[in-house]
């Protein structure tokens, strides 16, 4: 049996689902569902977790936000962001430092792909960046 694909999921894909953002909701939800179903191994960068808390906390109770994050943690691992990730990200040719940190965190976590709707910002990275629909096609064997 082939090893499962390992991916790091960008915050935009997760927010598409949590905020039901159209027209992206269906593809992004299918990405998370495929990871939750065990078709791939997924992670998010450690700093994405705290960013999510801040972004979804507006208008919700702390308990509700923690419940959402706890649910995500059931099927998304946390890719560490440590000194070596930061040092490597500082040397990556990305316009946006946060993008560089995510890409290096993905690399250190053993990810094969970075799933984002913002692929143009990750073209300089060491991993292929895929849009949600492209990742789903890859899983289905049609890419």
SSE blueprint and pairings:
Elements: E1 5-9, H1 11-18, H2 25-36, E2 40-45, H3 46-56, H4 62-73, E3 76-79, H5 83-90, H6 97-108, E4 113-115, E5 129-130, H7 132-140
Parallel strand pairs: 1-2, 1-4, 2-3, 4-5
Helix pairs in contact: 1-2, 2-7, 5-6
CATH topology: Rossmann fold
**CATH architecture name:** 3-Layer(aba) Sandwich
Strand order of the largest sheet: 3-2-1-4-5
**Overall domain count:** 1
Q: Tally the helices: what do you get?
A: 7
Shape: globular
Question: What structural category arises from helix and sheet content?
Answer: alpha/beta
Strand content: 5-15%
Q: What does this protein structure show overall?
A:
- With 143 residues, the chain is α/β, with parallel strands linked by helices.
- Helix 1 crosses helix 2.
- The mean pLDDT is 92.
- The longest helix is centred in the N-terminal third of the chain and has 12 residues, at 25-36.
- It is globular.
- The chain has one domain (5-140): 5'-nuclease (Rossmann fold), CATH 3.40.50.
- It has helices at 11-18, 25-36, 46-56, 62-73, 83-90, 97-108, 132-140, and strands at residues 5-9, 40-45, 76-79, 113-115, 129-130.
Give structural attributes.
143 residues, alpha/beta, 7 helices, 5 strands, 14% strand
Summarize it.
The chain is an alpha/beta fold and 143 residues long. The protein has helices at 11-18, 25-36, 46-56, 62-73, 83-90, 97-108, 132-140; strands at residues 5-9, 40-45, 76-79, 113-115, 129-130.
